[in-house]
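Tokens as discussed.
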């Protein structure tokens, strides 16, 4: 007996050691994942910073080159416009100098010429000299009256740029918002998130998701709420979610949260096809009462809802309401019934009143429920929201 007791204690200790080893190995894997997350996010952050500042330097150089070219063109325009009247004045003066040279040569020839022809030459020279108006001189602008180009460069730009650059960009050890909870819904996932940075004042949130096999995230929600029902989710398929936020008065979005995986095992709600009196949408989650006179209960295709879940319907009035219009859930489907006013069913009229005869018996075991809607005189559209 003592040996058997020792063997039993030994076996329990061995099993405890194995369990302890498994837990330690699981924690080692958790540490490895944490280390990889830090390293991968640090590498990604370095790449983002280097690419951003490389693009910024290229953009700044392009802007500076464009500004320099604009200023140089402005200098060229001022120079050309200022030189033009000086060129015209220079042509006038050069023409006057040429005319004076010709007149000098003619006057010297008349003075030094033959005596017989001297009187005639002197007379012609005198007349020509009077016509030229030797006392008329063109006006030349003084240096203070002509442009003197210069460049005015404000050195405070460097100070402003320096201050802006030193404040540009931040590095955060963790995003200001994180995903908090995934709640399985039929054909959907209710995603909740929360703020983890007390100093961050959010204005809007942005939620993205993708299938685990996809390469790109896509926007699914942008708004001020901290939860969103993501619909049209394939059951038993993993989806990755991430969320970010935009601070109050800011245009840029914060860093993304750590991506987390969510899924739902609940198939989406569908109404049963083939019942006269109802027209169904392409996804068969919306039932529209038509003009048929047939009566009956429209059931869900499968028992996709369980005890403890919240059922939400949207009812839109299309025709005249009837006091017999109702919604309900039941444990079992009975084809041919025209009402849910029976045992193992809860029937609530569309005005919010429940029938006192409707109840779930105490002996009913928890299990799946069939959402259903009475068809009799129902002139409304019923759409499952969640």
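Sequence:
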């Amino acid at each position: 007996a003592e040996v058997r007791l020792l063997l039993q204690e030994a076996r329990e200790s061995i099993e405890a050691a194995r369990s302890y080893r498994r837990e330690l190995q699981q924690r080692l894997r958790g540490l490895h994942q944490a280390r990889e997350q830090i390293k991968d996010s640090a590498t990604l952050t370095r790449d983002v910073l280097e690419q951003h500042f490389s693009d910024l330097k290229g953009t700044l150089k392009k802007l500076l080159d464009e500004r320099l070219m604009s200023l140089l063109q402005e200098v060229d325009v001022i120079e050309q416009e200022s030189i033009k009247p000086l060129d015209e004045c220079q042509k006038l003066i050069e023409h006057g100098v040429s005319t004076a040279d010709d007149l000098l040569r003619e006057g010297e020839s008349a003075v030094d010429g033959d005596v017989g022809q001297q009187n005639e030459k002197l007379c012609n020279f005198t007349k020509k000299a009077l016509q030229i108006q030797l006392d008329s001189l063109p006006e030349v602008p003084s240096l203070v009256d002509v442009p003197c180009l210069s460049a005015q460069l404000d050195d405070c730009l460097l100070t402003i740029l320096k201050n802006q650059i030193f404040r540009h960009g931040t590095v955060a050890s963790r995003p200001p918002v994180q995903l908090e909870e995934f709640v399985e819904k039929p054909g959907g996932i209710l995603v909740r998130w929360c703020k983890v940075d007390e100093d961050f004042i959010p204005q809007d949130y942005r939620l993205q998701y993708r299938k685990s096999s996809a390469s790109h995230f896509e926007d699914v929600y942008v708004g001020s709420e901290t939860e969103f029902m993501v619909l049209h989710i394939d059951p038993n398929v993993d989806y990755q979610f991430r969320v970010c936020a935009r601070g109050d008065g800011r245009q840029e979005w914060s860093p993304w949260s750590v991506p987390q995986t969510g899924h739902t095992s609940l198939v989406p709600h569908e109404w049963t096809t083939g019942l006269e009196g109802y027209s169904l949408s392409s996804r068969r989650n919306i039932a529209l009462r038509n003009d048929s006179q047939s009566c009956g209960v429209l059931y869900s295709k499968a028992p996709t809802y369980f005890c403890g879940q919240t059922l939400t319907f949207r009812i839109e009035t299309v025709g005249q309401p009837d006091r017999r219009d109702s919604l309900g859930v039941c444990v079992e489907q009975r084809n041919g019934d025209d009402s849910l006013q029976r045992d193992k069913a809860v029937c609530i009229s569309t005005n919010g009143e429940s029938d006192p005869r409707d109840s779930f018996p105490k002996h009913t075991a928890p299990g799946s429920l069939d959402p259903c809607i009475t068809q009799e005189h129902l002139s409304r559209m019923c759409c499952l929201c969640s």
